[in-house]
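Hi,

I'm pasting everything inline rather than attaching a file, because the server keeps stripping attachments. The sequence lines come first, and each chain or strand is labelled.
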Amino acid sequence: MVPTQYYLVLSAILFGLGAVAFVFKRNIITIFMSIELMLNAVNLAFVAFSQAFGKVHGQVFVLFVIVVAAAEAAVGLGIIILIQRNRQSLNVEKVNLLKL
Amino acid sequence: MTPTLLIFFVLAGLAVLGALSLVIQKHPIHSALSLIVVMVCLAGLYLLMGAEFVAAVQIIVYGGAIMVLFIFVIMLLNAGEEERTDFSKLAKFAGLPLALALTAAIAAAVVKPAPDIPSQSVIPDATRLISSMLFQEFVYPFELTSFLILVAIMGALVLAQREKK
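And the predicted assembly:
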């Protein structure tokens, strides 16, 4: 079997890449996708721990995370459509009303 | 190297490549397709761990529903290539090292307690256990998520409808 540590390291790498994408990307849709990537990385850690301890609690939590991610995607994409309608741009630098 | 380990490394490599491609690609639709690669690889990893139900849900909900929603919005808004803007000096020089440090810190934090963890074993009858747990122990959170989805649907409708004149 594959050691649990390998899954955890992979999960950390994916989470780090998601965080990098979140900070470096300028397109709001891509930023949103990097959040999904980070959620996926956490799900991987949940399932790995669930298998390691021989309990299914982790997998139940993954189901909840997926449901919340779906709800979040629906609302977030609605907000993105609104931003595009009001600013005619998907660049986050253009959304700066609250910036000093 | 056992076949299981080989499959793990192939899937893990593909997932990391897909995630890197998400960061590097300029066009949002390319990023979305790379994210689908990552999700399918993760579903394969769940199968490898013996979590069949989570793997199926991953493919159907993430790979199917959520990513189709993303691609639909990208096409609806006709999103073009990302405009490049200058990073601040801090981001240019400290960004990558800080990101590496974050990854290392998370990896160290999750791996450190791992030696006590017993080795991987496939849970028999996992899907049946999940269903009974979902509808007994976690029944209130489960019902709450259905309410959450209802609120999300209404919120999306209110946000995306055309303004009345």
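Chain A has a mean pLDDT of 88.

If the labels don't parse on your end, tell me and I'll reformat.
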